[in-house]
């Protein structure tokens, strides 16, 4: 048995032995969800678990809050530093599942699997700590708040707080309810889209529906802009590129059958993978809102907000993650992913250190774990969680051994 296979087998054994604890932790977090930048009790529980394990340099509280944790597993042998990340925040939803571990908090629910991420990383930390006499270098653990926030992402707060100091490689996992349980998907290069938002106020002059000539109707401008937006993708983005522009909301200042409103508000999102496309789409939206608004005699206030960059997986890190997954899960359970139009603030880490982000399937119809993310009935196949712990631990081990 070679040393790599031997370590994988040791890590698998340790993670499997700790499976019940991983599942119990996941259920604790699921029953006690906390939304972005409110993860105070979640942070305390993570610190408690890490202190029991015996990790070093435990720090909590980032972004001027009491939320988020970083810690180190220091190997007995010298080496580099690799980071493993789990996000920990819940969503502002009501849990509609009929399960014993249903959320106990109205208006908060782990509907994206971050409870699983936290418990998997704690499981990995226990396995790596048990083997630290053989470990070369340091493993940095990141339990990140506020991945769901968007406007104030937790990843940036951890970076600003020094979480990546000394780190030379990074790995992250997201559970995915659209992928069969135990299947891992990877992709080198562009993986998840960057996310931007836009908002606009179209101001006209209100009036009576029977005399439109006396008003300046902002709804006409809004309708024309809504149609024109669709040409941005079809006529201004090269066919070889991928991008999305969507309208998320339209609201008029009045809602009466015979009144022309004096104002329309609109908002939406843009998803892109390349900075050049992002720039092009932003410029096109600015032009359409301004010129169509002027043509319709309306005043337009348009704002474009750059939120999250695209998640770009480092080629070498991706090759390592693929190799680790094939060794840990079997080659038949590893496949290349298509581009993902969803977004992740993990992208901020990849702009600083070589990083890779992968998706681990938890979809099982019999266990009702195939509901969409952000659904009030979202759940995971808990039998996969120990495998997530294995992937974290083996990736860290292999990175330190090979670097």
What do these coordinates show?
By secondary structure, the protein is α/β, with parallel strands linked by helices. The protein folds into two domains: 3-193 and 311-402, Aminopeptidase, CATH 3.40.630; 194-308, 2-Layer Sandwich (Alpha-Beta Plaits). It contains ten helices and 16 strands. An eight-stranded mixed beta sheet has the order 1-2-4-3-5-16-6-15, with helices on both faces. A four-stranded antiparallel beta sheet has the order 10-12-8-13, with helices on one face. Strand 1 and strand 2 form a beta hairpin. It starts with a helix and ends with a helix. The model has no long low-confidence stretch (mean pLDDT 97).
Provide a brief overview of the structure.
The protein is α/β, with parallel strands linked by helices and 403 residues long.
Q: What's the arrangement of strands in the largest beta sheet?
A: 1-2-4-3-5-16-6-15
Largest sheet: 8 strands, mixed
Question: What overall geometry do the principal axes of the alpha carbons give?
Answer: elongated
Could you tell me the CATH topology label of the largest domain. Answer: Aminopeptidase
* Overall pLDDT: 97
Number of helices: 10
CATH C-level class of the largest domain is Alpha Beta
Q: Which residues form runs of ≥5 with pLDDT under 50?
A: none
**How many angstroms does the end-to-end distance come to?**
22 Å
Order of helices and strands: HHHEEEHEHEEEEEHEEEHEEHEHEH
Give the CATH architecture of the largest domain.
3-Layer(aba) Sandwich
Strand proportion, as a percent range, falls in 25-35%
What structural class results from the helix and strand content? alpha/beta
CATH superfamily of the largest domain: Zn peptidases
The radius of gyration computed from the alpha-carbon positions, rounded to a whole number of angstroms, is 24 Å
Number of domains: 2
Number of strands: 16
Could you estimate the helical fraction of the residues in percent?
25-40%
């Amino acid at each position: 048995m070679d040393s790599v296979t031997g370590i994988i087998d040791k890590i698998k054994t340790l993670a499997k032995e700790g499976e019940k604890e991983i599942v119990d932790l996941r259920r604790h977090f699921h029953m006690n969800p906390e939304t972005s930048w409110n993860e105070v009790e979640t942070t305390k529980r993570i610190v408690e678990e890490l202190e029991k394990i015996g990790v070093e340099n435990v720090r909590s509280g980032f972004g001027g809050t009491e939320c988020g944790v970083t810690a180190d597993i220091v190997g007995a042998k010298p080496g580099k530093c690799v980071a493993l990340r789990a996000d920990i925040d819940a969503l502002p939803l009501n849990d509609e599942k009929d399960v014993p571990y249903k959320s106990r908090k109205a208006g908060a629910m782990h509907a994206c699997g971050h409870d699983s991420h936290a418990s998997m990383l704690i499981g990995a930390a226990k396995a790596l700590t048990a083997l630290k006499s053989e470990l070369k270098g340091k493993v940095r653990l990141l339990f990140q708040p506020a991945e769901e926030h968007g406007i104030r992402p937790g990843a940036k707060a951890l970076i600003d707080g020094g979480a990546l100091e000394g780190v030379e490689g990074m790995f992250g996992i997201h559970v995915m309810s659209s992928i069969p349980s135990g299947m891992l998907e990877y992709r080198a290069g562009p993986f998840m889209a960057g996310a931007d938002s836009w908002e606009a106020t179209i101001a006209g002059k209100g009036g009576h529906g029977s005399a439109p000539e006396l008003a300046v109707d902002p709804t006409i401008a809004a309708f024309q802009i809504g149609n024109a937006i669709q040409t941005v993708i079809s006529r201004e983005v090269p066919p070889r590129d991928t991008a999305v522009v969507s309208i998320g909301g339209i609201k008029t200042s009045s809602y009466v059958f015979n009144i022309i409103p004096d104002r329309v508000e609109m908002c939406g999102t843009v998803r892109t993978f390349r900075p050049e496309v992002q720039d092009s789409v932003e410029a096109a939206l600015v032009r359409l809102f301004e010129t169509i608004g002027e043509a319709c005699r309306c005043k337009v206030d348009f704002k474009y907000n750059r939120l999250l960059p695209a998640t770009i997986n480092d080629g070498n890190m991706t090759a390592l993650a693929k190799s680790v997954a094939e060794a840990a899960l079997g080659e038949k359970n590893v496949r290349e992913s298509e581009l993902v139009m969803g977004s992740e603030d993990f992208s901020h880490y990849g702009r600083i250190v070589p990083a890779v982000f992968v998706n681990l399937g938890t979809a099982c119809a019999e266990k009702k774990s195939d509901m969409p993310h952000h659904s009030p009935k979202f759940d995971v196949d808990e039998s996969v969680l120990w495998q997530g712990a294995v992937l974290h631990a083996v990736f860290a081990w292999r990175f330190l051994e090979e670097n």
